[in-house]
Structures are given as C-alpha cells and as structure tokens.
Amino acid sequence: MEFEDWFLEQINNGKKCILIGENHYSYASEDCLDCILKLQKQGKINKKIVFFDENLSALDNLESYTVEHLSKLNTVEPSLIALIRNNVEVYGLEDNVSNPFINLKSMKKVTARIKDLGLQIGNRIFNDFDHCLYWAYHLYGKSLVRVQRGNEGFCNQILHKMDEDTIVIARVGAKHIPTVRKDGVVIEEGMLQRLGKDMASACFITHFPKNRTYSEQKTYQPESDTFGSYDSIECCMVQKKMIHQPDLTLWAEQKKERKDTNDYKDTKKHRCTIM
C-alpha cells in the first residue's frame, strides 16, 4: 500500500502513534519523512506532530532536538532538519537503557557490561577498545535482551508524549515492532502490542520496486534470530527520489549528490545501535 494513503487512513481512524519500521541501510524512511512533511504543508495533518528517532540519542532531560543540536553531530539527515524547521518536535530514542554501552570508555567496563547482560563472549581477545566495542554491539544487537530493553524504553518515552492533540511518529528498526515467538510461545510482545493496537499502527517502509509490473509487497517478514522468530509487519511503499542529499553536516548542506556507496552504509551503520 502507498504510505501516504495508509498514513492518512490511520490518523483518520484515531490512531495516536505511528510506528515506522526501517531497514537501517535504506533511504526509504527518509523519503517517508518527506511525505509526512508534504501532508503537513497540505493541511491534511491537523494535530501537533512529535517525531522519535532510534538513530538519535536521547538528550539530557529528554529535551527535543534543535538545529543547533544537529549541527554538533558528525552527520545529519536533511529530513530531520526539515522536520524541526516545520515545527515538528524531534526526540532521540536511544539511551543508556536501550544502548548499555553508550557511555562506556574502557575495555574493562565494556566486557563487564557484556557479562552483566548475560551475553556469551567466550575467550575472545580484543586488539583495542574499538574492537571490543564492535563485538559488544555485535553480540547485543543479535540478542533478545536488546529487543526487550529497547522496546520497553522506547514505548515509555512515546507514551509520555501521546495525547488527544498529538500524533506521535517513531522511526525504529523493524525488529522492534512485532511480537517475537519461540516454538510458538510469545517471548516478547513487541512495540505495537506494548503500545496497544487500538492506539498505534505500524508499517515497514520500503521503496516501490523499479519494475511496477511486479505485485506490491503486502507484508514484511523480519529475519529470525537465534532466540526466536518475528511476526510479519504490514508493508508500505514510497516513491524513490531520483536525487538525494547524503547524510551531511550542516556546513555542507549545499551538496546535492546522493551516494549509495559502502562508505555511506558504514556511516549510517555507526549511527545505529544494531550492528
């Protein structure tokens, strides 16, 4: 289904929260944010918009981001700048609960935290701090505890902002949204169930296929992990832009070329918790 139609249907049905599941290496969610801004400018969204992003760290005292905050980051999505300039409150979701390594500065503290989380590190020897931190994220990103800690913390932040006059939109990795099962038994409800399907809706966002003769994708099935499998998510599609700005610093905002390269993917990878 086309995202624009789906989104309007959800808010017209009284949903207070829209979860957008993304592939962390895709531009589709950025195109999706541009679509939301277009709907706002057309007057089709008549409520205050609050946007939460897993790709951003939560600020002290749960402050909303300003353009000045974004200017201090290594890279910035142009869509985030546009949201703020159009009076959308932007918040980071990632904190020291969902990302327990975020403020650790030594190998000793990182390895201790890995063990505290019940992750198996074995007898692995690390070359340096960066190597240690990489493996910490690698192990944590593929664990059930990552899904559970993230889901609980993210939902608590979202619920704090939900009210009758606000539409809350949250962009998260797709695996945070659905129920997780092991041998058919639920081991994690997922964000959609935690928030309540009467209050929230969710979709996985992707681009329309280049060859439109193929049937549109109806659902998205996240890949199973060692601890369990995920329920499918409704899939929505957006048009792929011909030209994108890359992730950029504010002082380089004039650059217009889009770079679908390994360097870009590596950059975006470092902005995300799940390695």
Automatic annotation (TrEMBL):
It comes from the Bacteria. This is Haem-binding uptake Tiki superfamily ChaN domain-containing protein. It comes from Legionella pneumophila (strain Lens).
